[in-house]
Every structure is written in C-alpha cells, then in structure tokens.
Design a protein that fits this description.
Helices cover about 30% and strands about 25% of the residues. It is an alpha+beta fold. It folds into 2 domains: about 110 residues, D-amino Acid Aminotransferase, Chain A, domain 1 (2-Layer Sandwich), CATH 3.30.470.10; about 160 residues, D-amino Acid Aminotransferase, Chain A, domain 2 (Alpha-Beta Barrel). The strands form 2 sheets. Strands 7, 8, 9, 10, 11, 12, 13, 14 and 15 form a 9-stranded mixed β-sheet that branches. A hairpin with a 2-residue loop joins strand 10 and strand 11. The radius of gyration is 19 Å and the shape is globular. It binds 3-[O-phosphonopyridoxyl]--amino-benzoic acid.
C-alpha cells in the first residue's frame, strides 16, 4: 500500500512525493533530520526529538517554516493518516529549492517532509546473542569542522565508516575522535559498564547526543547505578564487563566482541538486560498519544 507522505503542508501518496533535483538538501546535503519511533499508539520522546531538530536547524541558520506545535501536529497527523500504531518516523527539513551554488540565500523556502512507515525491527537474535563490533579507520567528524551534535543531512562520514563495517561483515563499528577517543558508532551511541558504573563519551568529544542515550542515562540512575559522561579510549571498551549501543532504531543492543576481543563472557550482560527491560516498559507506556 502506498504510504501517505507529508510534503510541504500536504499529505500526498508516496509515488507523488517528489523533491526537486535543485533542492539543496540533495545538491549539498544542506538540511537536518530526525528519526523518531512510535510504540503502541504513542510517539516516544516526540518533544525531545523536535527540540533537537530545531536546535540542529538553528545551528545551520535554517529557519523551519512551521512552529513547534505545528510541527508536532504535522508529525501526529502523518502517523494517523497511515493508520500506524508502531512506526518509524523520518522528519526532514532541507534548505529548499534554489539555483546551483552553495549560497543558502538562493533557497527562499525550506522543504519539509515527514515519512511515517512501519518499522523494520532487528531480528530477535541480535538482542539474544549480541553484536560483534570493529573499530573503523574513518574518524568521526571533528566538531571544529562539522559538529556531530548537529543531525544534518551530511552523513558521508558515517557512511564511509559503515562501508568498513559491511566489508568486515559486522553490523556496526566504533568511530573514534581525531584524538583517538571513543566517540560513538555509525548510527548509535556507545556505553561501557563496569560493576555499577556506566560510562558514555561526552557530547563534546564529537557525537550525537542521542535521545535514547539520555533516556538510558536516566534509567541507569533510577536503578541506583552511576551514569557518567567521560572520555575513554579503546582499551576501556576492550576491558569492560559489558558494552551496549543505544539508538532510536536499535533501542539497546548488547555488544559481545570488539576488534575480536571478547567482552565479558561473550554473552549479553545483566546490566544491559535490565536496561532493555526498563526501556521496553517505558516505551510501552510513555509518549505523545496519536489517537485520542
Ligand atoms: N549517533 C548517530 C550518528 C546517529 O545517527 C544515534 C547516535 C542515536 O541517537 P538517537 O537519538 O536515535 O538515540 C544516531 C541516530 C536510520 C536511523 O534510519 C539513524 C538514527 C536513528 C534512527 C534511524 O539509519 N541515528
């Protein structure tokens, strides 16, 4: 069935939802986006995602042509129009259509589109067995050049790293900062666990301040463990009791080896499993209601 896509204020069938070849989002990767999930008729952390979206847009001097409440409404209506209860929502704002040339002033009107699709879940096996990771040779963008905290349409840095993971036959890979600190993975944040202490790299290292990451930090504290934002290198990952990844699509995924070093006993750890359970409980009951 054709999806209904929100495109510049209208809901249009998927095969009619087209963007111009002169759109600067396509020509230059000039734009911002969000990936959001709905669970059981509720959109999880919708306002947090929208706040990050408006922050990314502000950082690149892109004025979103809808107010915050209008945008929230547009997202909800798009999910509703597709009669979805569990969904993956992709919200994209580009600089818009303009003549060739970098100058954003060539683009009078940003393009806004929202895709709400049914979600493709990772196979259950991934969560039961855990993932092997490699470290990618491609370093994460330096924040001094393009801050990874801006969720922009420029994903080539991550895609180059992703190609390395594909060639190595693993699903994800660690990206280091220019200084060799662990930054994040190609599309997920990374955590290490030692006893009751959980570490994740600070955003200042150069990573996306993941919404799932922040939710998980809250869950860790709720479970009376300590959650710290601290810089660390690969050795800390290799020697951790547990390692896990977080992201909107992946949720919380256990990692069982890194660069062929076995993590813990090579099976998903107890802290990771507890957090997965807490996260599932939270996503099942919290979120912005789609159908009222
Ligand atoms: N780091 C990077 C580089 C990301 O792109 C995350 C961390 C996790 O952030 P959240 O806010 O999701 O917890 C991301 C998120 C996709 C897709 O379609 C990518 C992401 C999220 C959802 C879907 O590939 N990236």
């Amino acid at each position: 069935m054709d999806l209904l896509i929100y495109l510049d204020g209208e809901l249009v069938p998927e095969h009619e939802a087209k963007v111009s070849v002169f759109d600067h989002g396509l020509l230059y990767g000039d734009g911002v986006f969000e990936g959001i999930r709905a669970y059981n008729g509720r959109i999880f952390k919708l306002d947090e995602h929208l706040r990050r979206l408006y922050g990314s847009a502000k950082a690149i001097m892109l004025e979103i042509p809808l107010g915050f409440d209008e945008m929230r409404q547009a997202v909800v209506e798009t999910v509703r129009a597709n009669e979805l209860r569990d969904a993956y929502i992709r919200l994209v704002i580009t600089r818009g259509v303009g003549d060739l040339g970098l100058d954003p002033r060539k683009c009078p009107k940003p393009t806004v589109f929202i895709i709400a699709a049914s979600i493709e879940l990772y196979p259950e096996e991934v969560y039961e067995k855990g993932l092997p990771l490699i470290t990618c040779a491609t370093r994460r963008n330096a924040p001094e050049a393009l801050d990874p905290a801006i969720k922009s349409l420029n994903y080539l840095n991550n895609i180059l790293a992703k190609i390395e993971t594909v060639r190595a036959g693993v699903p994800e890979g660690i990206m280091l900062s220019i200084d060799g600190y662990v930054a994040e993975c190609t599309g997920d944040n990374l955590f290490v666990v030692n006893d009751d202490n959980v570490l994740t790299p600070p955003a200042a290292i150069g990573n996306l301040e993941g919404i799932t990451r922040n939710v998980v930090m809250g869950l860790i504290r709720k479970l009376d463990m300590t959650a710290e934002e601290k810089s660390f290198r690969l050795r800390t990952v290799y020697c951790a009791d547990e390692v896990f990844l977080t992201g909107t699509a992946a949720e919380i995924v256990p990692v069982v080896s890194v660069d062929d070093r076995r993590i813990g006993d090579g099976r998903p750890g107890t802290v990771t499993k507890r957090l997965r359970k807490e996260f599932a409980d939270l996503t099942a009951r919290e979120g912005f209601p789609i159908y009222t």
